[in-house]
């Protein structure tokens, strides 16, 4: 039986976050340039959007380019920016009734790319079936630092008192303020780390790591990740008995 057939359709995670890793190694294993891996990775993203819609996922956040990725060779950075520019397809968002959001330090993104992204954000803002959040020039430490700055400014202006700062204040000052926390975070490519992605938001997220390189990640791989998610017990600090009691109520 496939993982897809074994899924509980009533318990699909609402928000799935993905660290799409392994493009370079996928290419290297085939004797190709890293750029070929990135190009193939784009195809996997296109497919992911369709699969997310068909499974009923509402939010998918994809780690596309990290703050640290600016330190890669300039040719690779340029290739990635060009690929992004070439593949922002409003048509595929429309087909999936998907709305685009971008989070990150977007002031660093080339203006031509940002213009195209902004147009797509604007033209898809009425769609609500799937929300696609592209994390671009993003890192959690950058985001949290920005949030601290924003909150401090409010305190300095007298709009907020220091002892009024709550978890909600911090959550609301992050770039993800409009999103529920992810229930499931997937990292492809074999590394067991978060690489500065959604550190605050993933406090109680189920983490799933697989060896598959991103270009090979398909519907069945996604279903496998969700299958494992569905077989975990999310306790949120409680005991197993407490969780069982509350689900029996
Ligand atoms: C992920 O693949 C894509 C980006 C980080 C932009 P990598 O490019 O990190 O591929 P590996 O990890 O070198 O195989
Ligand atoms: C994480 O992958 C960033 C993205 C997938 C965009 P990296 O390949 O940059 O992460 P590290 O360097 O292995 O931690
Ligand atoms: Mg990598």
In short:
The protein has helices spanning 3-6, 23-28, 34-55, 74-86, 90-95, 111-123, 140-156, 167-173, 219-230, 240-248, and strands at 15-19, 59-66, 98-103, 130-138, 184-187, 206-209. It is built from 10 helices and 6 strands, in the order H-E-H-H-E-H-H-E-H-E-H-H-E-E-H-H.
The dominant shape is globular
Tell me the domain tally: 1
CATH superfamily: Decaprenyl diphosphate synthase-like
Helix tally?
Answer: 10
Helix-and-strand structural type: alpha/beta
How many strands, which pairing sense, and closed or not: the largest β-sheet? 6 strands, parallel
Question: In the CATH hierarchy, what is the class?
Answer: Alpha Beta
How many strand units?
Answer: 6
CATH architecture: 3-Layer(aba) Sandwich
The CATH topology comes to Undecaprenyl pyrophosphate synthetase
Ions, cofactors and other ligands present here are: 3-methylbut-3-enyl trihydrogen diphosphate, magnesium ion
Helical residues, percent = 40-55%
The CA-CA distance between the termini, in Å, is 32 Å
Low-confidence region ranges: none
Spatial order of the strands forming the largest sheet: 3-4-2-1-5-6
Portion in strands: 5-15%
The ordered H/E elements are HEHHEHHEHEHHEEHH
- Rounded to the nearest angstrom, the radius of gyration is 19 Å
Average pLDDT over all residues:
97
């Amino acid at each position: 039986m496939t993982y897809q057939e074994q899924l509980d359709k009533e318990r699909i995670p609402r928000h799935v976050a993905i660290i799409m890793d392994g493009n370079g190694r996928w290419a290297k294993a085939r004797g190709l340039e890293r750029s070929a891996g990135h190009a193939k990775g784009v195809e996997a993203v296109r497919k992911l959007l369709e699969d997310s819609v068909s499974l009923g996922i509402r939010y998918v956040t994809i780690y596309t380019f990290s703050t640290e990725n600016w330190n890669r060779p300039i040719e690779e950075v340029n290739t990635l920016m060009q690929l992004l520019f070439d593949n922002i397809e409003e048509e595929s968002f429309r087909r999936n009734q998907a709305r685009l959001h971008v989070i990150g330090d977007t002031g660093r993104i080339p203006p031509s790319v940002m213009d195209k992204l902004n147009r797509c954000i604007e033209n898809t803002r009425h769609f609500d079936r799937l929300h696609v959040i592209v994390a671009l020039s993003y890192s959690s430490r950058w985001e949290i630092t920005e949030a601290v700055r924003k909150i401090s400014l409010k305190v300095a202006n007298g709009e907020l008192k220091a002892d009024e700062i709550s978890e909600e204040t911090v959550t609301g000052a992050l770039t993800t303020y409009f999103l529920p926390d992810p229930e499931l975070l997937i990292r492809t490519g074999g590394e067991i780390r978060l690489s500065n992605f959604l550190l605050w938001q993933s406090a109680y997220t189920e983490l799933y790591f697989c060896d598959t390189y991103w270009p090979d990640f398909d519907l069945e791989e996604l279903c496998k990740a969700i299958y494992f998610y569905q077989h975990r017990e999310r306790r949120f600090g409680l005991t197993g008995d407490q969780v069982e009691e509350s689900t029996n109520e």
